[in-house]
Amino acid sequence: MSKSEEQIAEWKEFRKSVYENKLKSEDDYEKYLTLISSGALGLSITFIEKIVNLEHATYKGLLILGWVFLTITLFGSLLSHFFSRKYSEKTIDDIDNPDIGYDVLSKKLEKRNLILERFNFANIATLFSGIILIIIFISTNILIMNNNQQKPRPGDQPK
């Protein structure tokens, strides 16, 4: 059973709305990734200044590694955006090239999309890792600070 012209028009309109939603989602993804990673960097630096004394902090490597992961996330997001723009330009050139057939174009698109998907996955992984490492650092040091405050120090007199 074939589709009527009205059904085809409805599906085309639906496809268009799905595509527009996809574009908005991709744009929002990069914005949120940048916002979350830069916000986590800023919040962790402020938190360290105000709460945890770095001179007496333990496991400083976790904090530094967390900051490195968040910084990698920011640079990875920029690279992903750069490559996305470049790949879009290449795709337009490929579409305009009459010598490139549909099969070749399709394979090129798959390869480009796979690279961008890997960038996106890596960005999510580094963001998650950075935040987790910073949370572990802060939690550990808060627990240690609390334990040190509750234990009487040698020579302290009860008040």
Question: What's the structural blueprint in terms of helices and strands?
Answer:
Blueprint: H1 5-50, H2 60-96, H3 102-150
Give the structure's gist in a few sentences.
This protein is mainly α.
Descriptive notes:
The chain has 159 residues and is mainly alpha-helical. It is 83% helix and 0% strand. It contains three helices and no strands. The protein is elongated, with a radius of gyration of 25 Å. It starts with a helix and ends in a 9-residue tail after the last helix.
Key attributes of the depicted protein:
159 residues, 3 helices, elongated, 0% strand, mainly alpha
- Strand count: 0
Question: Which structural category do the helix and sheet elements fall into?
Answer: mainly alpha
- Give the number of helices: 3
Beta-strand content = under 5%
The overall average pLDDT, rounded, is 85
Shape: elongated
Order of helices and strands: HHH
Report on the biggest sheet: none
The helix fraction, in percent, is over 70%
Over all CA atoms, what is the radius of gyration?
25 Å
pLDDT < 50 stretches: none
Amino-to-carboxy terminus distance: 89 Å
